[in-house]
């Protein structure tokens, strides 16, 4: 399926987000760009508030719902660009 876009989601924000995450996100973005992948910025997927996480790392029901809606919107925009809709 050569016409189907491949999507990569950058790491999402977590309660323990720190300097290591800040350094790795650009590396992931660079790698994904080199591979020709469509990039979804994980920092915009879930609000930066611990109330949306079960344990500071994994989204709870509210965080997961927001993540799902935002991911669906990102995928639709990518599909439209690729002429798949």
Could you describe the 3D structure shown?
This protein is 45% helix and 7% strand. The chain has 2 helices and 2 strands, in the order E-H-E-H. It has helices at residues 19-34, 61-82; strands at 7-9, 38-40. The protein has a two-stranded parallel ribbon. The chain is flat and about 40 Å long.
Neighbour order of strands in the largest sheet: 1-2
Tally of strands: 2
- What structural category arises from helix and sheet content? mainly alpha
Order of helices and strands: EHEH
**What is the CA–CA distance across the termini?**
15 Å
Q: In DSSP terms, counting alpha (H) and pi (I) runs of 4 or more, how many helices?
A: 2
The largest pleated sheet is described as:
2 strands, parallel
The helix content is 40-55%
Radius of gyration: 14 Å
Low-confidence stretches: none
Overall shape: it is: flat
Indicate the mean pLDDT: 91
């Amino acid at each position: 399926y050569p016409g189907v876009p491949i999507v990569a989601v950058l790491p999402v924000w977590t309660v323990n987000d720190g300097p290591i995450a800040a350094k790795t996100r650009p590396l992931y973005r660079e790698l994904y760009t080199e591979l020709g992948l469509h990039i979804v910025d994980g920092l915009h997927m879930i609000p930066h508030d611990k109330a949306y996480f079960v344990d500071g790392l994994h989204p709870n029901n509210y965080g997961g719902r927001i993540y799902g809606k935002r991911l669906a919107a990102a995928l639709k925009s990518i599909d439209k660009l690729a002429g798949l809709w």
